[in-house]
Amino acid sequence: MLMTTSCLHVRKKTEFERQAQAWCDRLALFGLKLNFKRTEYLTTDVNEHGSIKIHGTELSRVTSFKYLGSTVTSDGSLKLEVNARIACRALSVSLRLRELKRALNVMETKMLRWTAVAIDHIRNYAILKKFGVAEKMSEICLRSLVQIDRQKVLNLKLQMKSDGVKLACIKCGEIPTNIDKHLKEVHDVKTSSDWLKNIRVIRDPGNTLSQAAVSTQVSANSPHLNKLMSLINTVDKK
Question: Where on the tree of life does the source sit, at the highest rank (predicted)?
Answer without folding.
Answer: Eukaryota
